[in-house]
Amino acid sequence: MSQRRVVVTGLGLVTPLGVGVNTVWKNLLQGQCGIISLADREAFEKLPVRIAAEVPKGSLEEGKFTASEWLDRGDDRTMAKFSQYAIAAARQAIQDSNWKPETDREKQRTGVCIGSGMGSLEDIVETAGSYAKGGPNHAVSTACTTGAHSIGDAMRFIQYGDADVMVAGGTEASVHPLAIAGFARAKSLASDYESNPTEASRPFDSDRSGFVMGEGSGVVVLEEYEHAKKRGAKIYAEIKGYGLSGDAHHMTSPPTNGQGAINSMRRALEIAQLSPADIDYVNAHATSTPVGDAAENNAIKTVFDGHWDKINVSSTKGATGHLLGAAGAVEAIFSILAVKNDILPPTLNLYEQDKQEFNLNYVPLVAQERKVRAAITNSFGFGGTNATLCFTKV
Ligand SMILES: *[C@@H]1O[C@H](CO)[C@@H](O)[C@H](O)[C@H]1NC(C)=O
Ligand SMILES: CC(=O)N[C@H]1CO[C@H](CO)[C@@H](O)[C@@H]1O
């Protein structure tokens, strides 16, 4: 089957590093970090972990988030925050793509695929509260459609002809005491950094001790290549590969050889019809947990055996924390920008590593220019999912 090619024509970001693709990318390359202390907030007082990566509040002009700048009157007060972030990111991406479907056919050929890992904990908690007090009510959360899955599935919809344009990504806003308490209990979070929160997320570093919860949204516009060319759209990159796997090993810790990650990376390369030698940059999932980073590192070394000295690997979670259901989409955008601009975003807080095991090029601390023909980005989830996306220059 001759396959329809899919390209990226629009980007939108709401992250702890700011709002708007230019702002976020600039802050990421400058080595800024979006993690802050929550110690002064009453709701977090009794928790063992009081840091998080929050979307900064303020005007868009300052690169920050104010709901009323993105939503219709009323919605800024009633709509759950994770939906607000998704709308803000989607609006940016659609405007950036300059795609304005007018005919019925054009509208029918344009789709949406945006997921969230947790949905709105705040609303679930409040609804549960009003249920106890008031009357019948209902709260549902369909977990874990990760950002990477949304983008990968959207690519397939276009390849198989179900749509010509897809608005795809992920969103999350679960910096909530309940979520922090849960992940802290699972011993997944970095806990000792209240006085120096920007140092808490340290992928691949010897002192890494867990991830930092983050929030935000990433949305892309994907488009069939000929469709994009015909209307003279700006093209960022081509999305070539999408791999999925699950290793059904343990609820929170991966097998140490990273077999699930190996499978998803290999599958993405196979679909893209590329070999490891064609890849210049690996945007790692690495969340800064001792076991997870080590397993992914092993997996990357296995997949890129013989090419270790030619690839660069970085994890942007040192700067953004872990955006859970949004991470895959936000990091897909960072990978797209690396391919488009030939710049590698850095791994923050990587000062010291076990040189025997962690012997790749991790772009420590500072961004670096290099030609990036193709990049892959990994996304792994607790209890069920691994995904890898592959982007190339057109
Ligand atoms: C990126 O990889 C190249 C090898 O291809 C290496 O020479 C360079 O030092 C790496 N950069 C960083 C910052 O790791
Ligand atoms: C290396 C890695 O993080 N693998 C993940 C892949 O997905 C499984 C679930 O099937 C997770 O348990 C792993 O953490």
UniProtKB/TrEMBL annotation:
Residues 3-393 form the Ketosynthase family 3 (KS3) domain. InterPro entries: 3-oxoacyl-ACP_synth-2, Beta-ketoacyl_synthase, Ketoacyl_synth_AS, Ketoacyl_synth_C, Ketoacyl_synth_N, PKS_Beta-ketoAc_synthase_dom, Thiolase-like. One of its GO terms (cellular component) is mitochondrion. Keywords: Acyltransferase, Fatty acid biosynthesis, Fatty acid metabolism, Lipid biosynthesis, Lipid metabolism, Transferase. GO terms for molecular function: 3-oxoacyl-[acyl-carrier-protein] synthase activity. The active site is at 144 (for beta-ketoacyl synthase activity). SMART domains: PKS_KS (SM00825). Its EC number is 2.3.1.41. Belongs to the thiolase-like superfamily. Beta-ketoacyl-ACP synthases family. This is beta-ketoacyl-[acyl-carrier-protein] synthase I. It comes from Thamnidium elegans.
